[in-house]
Design a protein that fits this description.
Blueprint: H1 3-12, H2 20-33, E1 48-49, E2 52-53, E3 68-72, E4 75-78, H3 79-89, H4 102-125, H5 128-144, H6 151-167, H7 177-198, E5 203-208, E6 211-215, E7 218-221, H8 222-233, H9 244-267, H10 270-287, H11 293-309, H12 319-341, E8 345-347
Helix pairs in contact: 1-5, 1-8, 1-9, 2-10, 4-10, 5-9, 5-10, 6-7, 10-12, 11-12
Length: 348
């Protein structure tokens, strides 16, 4: 039940970097469409010669575009989607899923299903705290795109802050504007996002039956209030011992988190939520996946061979320069391979 204040801390730095969701979403899309990188990718070398489709089977019967061609962990895949995917994978040379042999159909369905299988894993394995934290960050970043804080506005606030510091004869050094401009802009953006939510918020101290109070009729437990107090007072304050005036301040501090949580339920589509959770889950798995030096060096040697074979005139980056990229790519491939091993795929 420590969710509320953990997410409150997340809000404090929500715009401090691009959501992992966005970057990883692009990576997933890339992986699902590359022909030769991820393990188990469909070998389409037998499907065309000089740009012309090679017949796979004589007179294959074609099913309706609405027909279910496979299920993956119970999720249905219709022929229309499979046809579109194979057309994209072959640059339009093959447009009919039904012409593929059984083995290649399975491989193609595996490729199509990476995000679906990962989404199911994410929903099962992520904690509620993690889910709320991820969605909060995504919601904040989405709202930040609607806010335009100019450099001039930031400079105006900076000048006032500097003026107050000089008037108070503060001995602390004042950072240069360029050094703190981005952080200031981020904080001003966050404030602009939260302000409308807090405009007419109704906060009530209750302090009864394990309930600390309510925020717009949404109850806050004493446990959550104590979690917030523990974080800001380093364990020195407890809900039970602070005066009512301070109790209301604690609820006011928790309010943005609770209000954002309610807002994201309405403002984020199911697709946005699922994509964000899936990408977060995938990123965690990738970061925890081990890649040996031998695997990295073998991958680099393959790149060297491919470069020589292609007689490329471009200078190949050194192993050290590509090491991190190779590490991430190999880790992604391992995660996807492991993910698809547990997937239950049935062709129809």
């Amino acid at each position: 039940m420590k969710k509320n204040f953990v997410i409150l801390c997340t809000v404090a730095g929500l715009c401090s970097g691009q959501a992992s969701a966005d970057g990883l979403k692009n990576s997933l899309s890339s992986m699902m469409n590359k022909k030769d990188t991820a393990p188990g990718m469909v070998d389409l070398s037998t499907l065309s010669v000089n740009g012309k489709a090679r017949p796979m089977q004589p007179q294959v019967k074609t099913r309706s575009s609405k027909a279910v061609v496979a299920t993956v962990d119970g999720h249905k895949i219709i022929k229309k989607d499979a046809d579109a995917y194979i057309a994209k994978r072959t640059n339009g040379q093959i447009k009919n899923f039904d012409v593929l042999p059984t083995k290649q159909r399975i491989r193609l369905i595996q490729e199509m299903s990476v995000s679906t299988v990962a989404e199911s894993k994410a929903k099962k394995e992520l904690t509620e705290q993690e889910k709320v934290g991820v969605l909060t960050r995504v919601w904040m970043q989405k709202q930040a795109k609607k806010v335009n804080i100019t450099d001039a506005q930031v400079k105006e606030v900076y000048d006032k802050m500097k003026e107050r510091a000089l008037e108070s004869k503060s001995t602390k050094p004042i950072p240069e504007f360029a050094a703190i401009k981005n952080n200031m802009k981020m904080q001003m953006t966050e404030k602009a996002i939260v302000a409308p939510l807090m405009k007419d918020v109704k906060i009530t101290v209750i302090n009864a039956n394990m309930i600390a109070g309510s925020i717009n009729d949404s109850y806050i437990s004493i446990e959550d209030a104590n979690s917030a107090l523990n974080s800001i007072s380093k364990g020195k304050a407890k809900w039970e011992t602070i005066p009512d005036a301070d109790r209301k301040k604690v609820l006011q501090m928790i309010a943005p988190t609770r209000l954002i949580e309610e807002a994201l339920k309405k403002d984020l589509s199911e697709k946005e939520k699922n994509t964000a959770l899936t990408n977060f889950w995938m990123q965690n798995k990738i970061m925890k996946t081990d890649v040996s030096d031998k695997e990295l060096k073998d991958a680099y040697k393959n790149i060297e061979k491919a470069s020589k074979k292609a007689k490329s005139t471009k200078k190949l980056p050194s192993f050290e320069q590509l090491k991190q990229t190779l590490h991430m790519q190999i880790a992604k491939e391992k995660v996807i391979a492991d993910l698809m091993k547990s997937a239950k795929i049935k062709l129809k």
